[in-house]
Amino acid sequence: MEKRFNWSLLLGAAFLMATSAIGPGFLTQTATFTAQFAASFGFVILASIILDIGAQMNIWRIIAVSERRAQDIANMVIPGLGYLLALLIVMGGLAFNIGNVAGAGLGFNVLFGISAETGAILSAIIAIGIFLVREAGKVMDRFAQILGFVMIGLTLYVAFTSAPPVGEAVARSFVPEVPEDKMKAFFMAIVTLVGGTVGGYITFAGGHRLLDAGVKGIDNLPQVTRSSVSGILITAVMRIVLFLAALGVVAAGLKLDMSNPPASVFKLAAGDIGYKVFGIVMWAAAITSVVGAAYTSVSFIRTFSQTIEKYHKWVIVGFIVVSTIVFVTIGRPVKTLILVGALNGLILPLSLGIMLVAAYKSKIVGNYKHPVWLTIFGVLVVAVMAYLSGVTLTTEIPKLFK
Questions:
Q1: Global pTM?
Q2: Model pLDDT for residues 87-142, shown as the tens digit of each residue
Q3: How far apart are CA 307 and CA 160, in angstroms?
Q4: What is the number of domains present in the chain?
Q5: 96: domain CATH number?
Q6: Full domain range(s) for residue 105
């Protein structure tokens, strides 16, 4: 395989993972937390980037070395565990895809004035079209890359317009100032960011894409590692740029509209042009997440049935259609989305824990020796995320259902 072609695949997998993470929830979280913690939110971003890299490097390497998808690895660790993991991933992917479809509809609403429901249906047709072409994998990769660059470029324009205090943001990223009564919420923000970046289906998006494209085995580990870190860094660039855009607005003493925080960031920073830019960014973020969620969720059940494997493209289409029908007929089930978001934080320590055990089973990885420092890094991520996710589930989630 040519190196240039390989690099295209690696970049495609990195962007598929990154744009899967950058969805409507990503935009809303970043704007909301910036309003809450101002420059100190930079520390949350930095901490989440480190945890994200630790999780993703481990997971992608073990998928590549074992040459198996995550659910099959899990079933080899403990029979039946792969089915549980697949169930959690598909449930979370479907719930989030309802939100992604809604976000795409909102983007079209802002741009063209059509209803969010009509925009959602048109967006779903575009997403379905990607999977129905012959070279679906290549089209998906290129689609994610182009819209990824569009999102970052337009948000960078808004960040420059809002003139944020960059020096303070850098300083507070290492030495945050957080009132004691906000500390629990501050740590919960880390869980939310990590869960939203490498939780649930997202961290597997690129790993499974590389496997499908034949980039696997010990010989390809340097490329797999480069691609996995690139995915996190692309996501981080978008997060930082959006954070700076929101920080400029907050530092100027302007209040965000909490019914739609990211839209108000773009509008307050750059006026009506900014609001249209938000429409493009929201649509690009949402439609790429629709594609990533559908592709990855279905990749978790493909190996369970020859019929699903044979007709997996149509299963992906069905996944998108169901997400769209639920949004158009029921709307966004907010409590369900929040609950699944918190569960995504719990899926990460489970899935990463499974991978770390698998790394030391020769029947799965053969003669491969997993680096000790990566194991320690991974165990640290599992411990931190299990603890913080547990606290979130026991203290924050019950408040939703009172």
A1: 0.88
A2: 989 988 888 888 899 889 999 999 999 998 999 999 999 999 999 988 888 888 88
A3: 51
A4: 1
A5: 1.20.1740.10
A6: 3-400
